[in-house]
Every structure is written in C-alpha cells, then in structure tokens.
Amino acid sequence: VLSNYVKTSLKESDMSLRTSKIQLKIPSGCDGTVLVKNLYLSIDPFILALMKNQELELPSFTLDSPIYGFGVSKVLDSSHPNFKTGELVWGFTGWEEYSLIKDPDQLFKVQDKDLPLSYYIGILGMPGMTAYVGFFKYCSPKKGETVYVSAASGAVGQLVGQFAKIAGCYVVGSAGSKEKWGFALMKVDLLKNKFGFDEAFNYKEEQDYNAALKRYFPDGIDIYFDNVGGKMLEAVLNNMRLNGRVALCGMISQYNSLEQPEGIHNLINALVKRVRMEGFFTSDHYHLYPKFLEMVVPLIKEEKITYVEDIAEGIESAPGALFGLYSGRNVGKLLVVVARE
Ligand code: NDP
C-alpha cells in the first residue's frame, strides 16, 4: 500500500506491506466484477507519477490502499458475462495477491499460451505496444535511416532497437551499467550482443553527450526514440538531420529528481532541421493491439526477436524493485512474480 505521497524522490518506505484475510469469492452486491489471483506484476516508470499524485489520465493512488499497475492474473471467480473461472487475463490490477477487478472490460485475455505468461506485461503488453506504436507510427522509419534509442536496454528500448534493425536502420543505443553478482554487467554489451544494435555506449561514462552522439552519428540522427528527456534530449536536437523525427516516449531522467528538470535551452536546431517532435501515450492506441500481436508473435516464435526480463521474487520485493528502476538497477523488463500458477 502507499504509505505517503512522494514529495521529491522515492523511498522504499513510501510503501508498506499489509496482510488481511479475504474470501476467495466475489462478495454479494459486486455484479459485473471478477476476482483474480495475480501472477505477475509489472514495475513501470509511470507508477512514481501516481505516487506523487500527478495528473496522468489515470486515477492517483489512495493512501493506505494498494498500488495498482499492469499484471497478469488468473480468474478465480466471475460475475461478468465475458470472463470465466480459470481464464488468464492481463491489464490493470492491484499490487496484491488477489484483486477484485471492478471494471473487467479493461482486461485483455491472454491469447497465446505457448509464450511465457510474463510476456503479457512486457513484450506482448503495454511496453511492447509502446515500442511498436512509438517507433512505427511516430518515427515513420525508412530503410537506411539512423536511429538513436536512450534507456535502450529496458522494457521498451530493447524492442525499439530490434524493430529498428528489422526496418533496416542503423541503430545506436545508450544505457548505464550495473553491478550484479559481484561483477559489472555492462548493459551496452547486451545491446550489441543480444539485441543486435550496431553500436552502444554507456551514457554514465560520457562527459559530453554532444561529442558522444557526433562519434556515433557523424552525419546526424534521423530518428530519436526518447525515453529519458533532460540534457540528452537537448544534445540530440543538436545532432538531428534534416526532416528528422523525435518520438517523446518518456523522460525518466526527470521523474525522480530533486532538482528542477534541465530545460531545452535552444530549439533553433529543431527549427532549422525541420524536426518533427511528438509526444504519445500508448493508451490512445490499444485498437492496434491485434495488429501488433500479428506482427510480434511470429517474430518471437521464429526467434527473430528476443526479450530480456528482470524478475524479482515475491510481492514483498516490489518496493525495492520499483526503487531500483530509477537508478537503472534493472536489466531488461522489470517485473515481480507473485505466484506462478
Ligand atoms: P526501463 O525498463 O527502461 O527502466 C528504466 C530505465 O531507465 C532504467 O533501467 C535506467 O537504465 C534508465 N534510467 C533511470 N534513471 C535514468 C536517468 N536519470 N537518466 C537516464 N536513464 C535513466 O523502463 P521502460 O522501458 O518501462 O520505460 C522507458 C521509458 O518509456 C520511460 O521514460 C517511461 O516513462 C516511458 N514509457 C512511456 C509510455 C507512453 O505511453 N508514452 C508507456 C511506457 C513507458 P540505465 O541503466 O540505462 O540508466
């Protein structure tokens, strides 16, 4: 549950664990609801905005009530005509072992049970749709173009890079590095060796983002898929090519900061280069979900696309996992397994 609204930066103690007894059937007077057992919970950057009580077109969290987010769940009991006991679904649910879903019309049914269920909060869920819509609709890629992706090893970024390679582009990604099991696991190695990016760099080792981008894009950037905002966005705008496109997907460098976000000081390069810069919300595009599945499921099954997950065990690990997301502790899509069946 949310213990207090976050004022500046997130602390694990902003959340606490509660235990209560519930009946594993739908209470009387709750027609049209479904009771689910939550299997996987998604740890997503937008959660912090709701913990800060910020407007995000989603209801903010209520103090002392469960945090909610995307999850994969199994229907235990249903008083809704479209859902049956035993069905697997994904969509908004509580950070709980069991949840009563009051608006099941927003749930999606798990389509293909041959693939890992956790994929429905990753590559086959909201992050996958974000990469698909953001890249193909907002970046309008053409073969041979140059693409830059920030936060490139994460839930969304790893897919954008792979989609860009499939589209015949030259792709560079940036990411941090991470200590795991006592040695440094370089996310940039993952970008090149696992996801097939042409080049990758560790932005934490670069003093001058402008110089780094000039090194990898001597002739400029056609497409920037922005996951981080801040001063990286400013450096990118200095390096765009004529008629370039910038998809404003997220600005994670600004979400958990104590300081005022660093602004864009000069947009003249965007003007001179006729750059199209556009923000988007994946939630406006779920009508494309069937088309997205049609494209991505065969790519997964034919092993033309891969997906790395970072799985934390047990609901009690959720606060720590969320905290780690804003310092880049995760490698790949971060999620929590609550139960495996
Ligand atoms: P990730 O799995 O990429 O996890 C977040 C990553 O961001 C971390 O692993 C870390 O990697 C990086 N990061 C954290 N802090 C900073 C910082 N200060 N500067 C630069 N990088 C940082 O998350 P997602 O793939 O789920 O989300 C990526 C972006 O997409 C987010 O901005 C999110 O808000 C946005 N988003 C937007 C949606 C939309 O509808 N527009 C929908 C879904 C996501 P590293 O080690 O590289 O620093």
From TrEMBL:
Query: Gene3D superfamilies from the xrefs?
Result: Medium-chain alcohol dehydrogenases, catalytic domain, NAD(P)-binding Rossmann-like Domain
> Which positions fall inside the Alcohol dehydrogenase-like C-terminal domain?
155-296
Q: Which Pfam families match?
A: ADH_N_2 (PF16884), ADH_zinc_N (PF00107)
Signal peptide (residue range): none
Q: Which InterPro entries match?
A: ADH-like_C, ADH_N_2, GroES-like_sf, MDR_fam, NAD(P)-bd_dom_sf
Q: Which GO terms describe its molecular function?
A: 2-alkenal reductase [NAD(P)H] activity
What protein name applies here? Answer: Enoyl reductase (ER) domain-containing protein
List the source organism: Salvia splendens
Q: What is the lineage of its organism?
A: Eukaryota, Viridiplantae, Streptophyta, Embryophyta, Tracheophyta
